[in-house]
Amino acid sequence: MPTVPFILPPLGLTTEQAEVVRWLRSEGEQVQEGEPVIEVETDKAVVEVEAPAAGVLQRLVVGAGERVRPGDVLAELGVDAETAAHWLSLGQPGLNPTAAPGGPTSFQGAGTARAAAPAGLVPPVQPQGPAEGSRLRASPAARRLARAHGLPLTAVQGSGPQGRIQLRDVERVIQAAGQPPHDGDLPLVAGQPLPPLRQALVQTLTASARIPQFWIEQAVDCTRLLAGLDELRERWPELPWSVNDLLIKAVACALQVQPRLNCLYRPAPAQTADKAGADLLASPAGRLQPADGVHVGLVVAVADGVVVPVLRAADRLPLPQLAERRAALVQRARTGKLARGEWTGAAVSISNLGATGPDRFQALVLPEQTAMLAVGRIRPVPVVGPDGRVTSQPQMTLTLTVDHRVADGMEAAAFLRSLVEVLVNPAPLWAT
Amino acid sequence: MSSPEVGNQDLCLSLYRMMVRIRLFEEQVGKLAAAGQVPGLTHLSTGQEAVAAGVCAVLRPQDYLFSGHRAHGHTLAKGSPVTAVLAEILGRETGLCRGRGGSMHLVDAARGMLGATGVVGGNIPLALGAAWAAQVRGEDRLAVVFFGDGASGNGVFHESLNLASLWRLPVLFVCENNGVAEFTQREEHSRVAFTSEFAKPYDIPVRVVDGNDVLAVYTAAQALVHWVRQAGGPAYLECQTYRLSGHYVGDAQAYRDKAELAAWRERDPLLRLQRQLLAQGVPAAELTAQAEAERQALAQALELARTAPPPAAAEASAYVYSCARETPTCP
Amino acid sequence: METSYTEALRRALDEELARDPAVVILGEDVAAGGAFGVTRGLAERYGVERVRNTPISEAAITGLAVGAAVAGLRPVLEVMFIDFITLAMDNLVNQAAKYRYMSGGQLSVPLVVRTQAGAAGGAAAQHSQSLEAWLMHVPGLLVVTPSSPCEAYGLLKAAIRQDDPVVFIEHKRLYSKREDLPASEWVAPLGQARVVRAGVDATVVTYGGMTPLVVDAAARAAAEAGIDAEVIDLRSLVPLDVDTVVQSLQRTHRLLVVHEAVQNGGVGAEVAARVAEVAFDELDAPILRVGAAFTPIPFAPELERAVLPDEQRIVSALLRLVKEA
Question: Residues B116, B107: contact at Cβ < 8 Å?
Answer without folding.
Answer: yes
